[in-house]
Q: What sequence folds into this?
């Protein structure tokens, strides 16, 4: 059987996936191989499409691709069977301003609403709020030259430790976990819609990693990593409640692999019985 190559494109959050894969292939077939293309947060992510390849328009971007992919200065789309766009502006915080100011009649159940609007209007505004994400720009460039499956994953929710000090913690509605469940549902619905419209598929952060809706369990944050020039995940900076560790990476990566296996007709994973839940596999490998 021919190999199955997965192109993973992202910012520093991508670093949680690579060590998880190195510890355990999570039930993937031997011929499956990932290639990571990462650039640091804050980079403008200006890519040009040249002869079927996505090429950073500046030297810094090309060097970042070369380091993270271990040799490739551009993404030759024809070399890959599937694409994963990870992070790159897809984050729940894009929804906060809308939920702070606006709401529908049903939201009054959880507290006062400054400006009432219809559910259709709210949903449209939320789709617009996330439509500027860099992830969608990259997806459009891939789709201009390639029809291979493309999965988009969000940036992880912040650690649960950040909730009490956040602006949400003092908001009459957003301070309630039950209401945050509605926020997560609306955010994910909007993400699925904007990705599908552009020929991609959205995979949400698995609920097994949630402490509560819109916040991640601290166990997945401690010891988190960031993408650095030495191609390795580096111990997170003190106070960093956004980057995840390899245990989180394993859970997310397994969700990605399972969906790609479905889309490919079984080309990605060994028999399901050989693929235990990601956390259990990773702990056994330690």
A:
């Amino acid at each position: 059987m021919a190999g199955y190559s997965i192109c993973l494109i992202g910012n520093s959050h991508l670093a949680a996936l690579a060590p998880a894969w190195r510890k355990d292939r999570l039930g993937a077939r031997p011929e499956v191989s990932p290639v990571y293309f990462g650039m640091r947060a804050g980079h403008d992510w200006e890519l040009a499409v040249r002869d079927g390849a996505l090429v950073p328009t500046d030297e810094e971007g090309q060097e970042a691709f070369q380091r993270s992919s271990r040799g490739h200065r551009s993404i030759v789309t024809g070399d890959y069977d599937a694409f994963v766009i990870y992070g790159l502006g897809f984050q729940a915080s894009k929804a906060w301003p809308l939920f702070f100011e606006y709401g529908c009649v049903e939201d009054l159940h959880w507290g006062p609403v400054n400006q009432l609007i219809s559910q259709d209007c709210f949903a449209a505004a939320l789709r617009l709020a996330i439509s500027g994400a860099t992830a969608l720009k990259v997806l459009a460039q891939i789709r201009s030259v390639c029809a291979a499956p493309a999965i988009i994953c969000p940036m992880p929710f912040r650690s649960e430790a950040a909730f009490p000090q956040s602006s949400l913690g003092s908001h009459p509605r957003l301070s309630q976990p039950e209401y945050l469940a509605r926020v997560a549902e609306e955010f994910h619905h909007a993400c699925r819609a904007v990705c599908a419209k552009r020929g991609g598929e959205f995979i949400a952060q698995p609920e097994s990693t949630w402490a509560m809706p819109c916040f991640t369990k601290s166990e997945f944050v401690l010891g988190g990593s960031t993408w650095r020039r030495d191609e390795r995940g580096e111990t997170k900076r003190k106070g960093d409640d956004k980057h995840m560790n390899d245990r989180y990476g394993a859970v997310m990566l397994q969700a990605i692999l399972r969906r790609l296996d479905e889309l490919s007709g079984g080309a990605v994973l060994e028999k399901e019985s050989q693929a235990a839940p990601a956390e259990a596999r990773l702990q056994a490998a330690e």
Summary: Residues 4-90+131-157+185-209+223-285 form a domain with the Rossmann fold fold (CATH 3.40.50). The mean pLDDT is 89. Residues 177-197 form the longest helix (21 residues). The first strand starts at residue 4 and ends at 10.
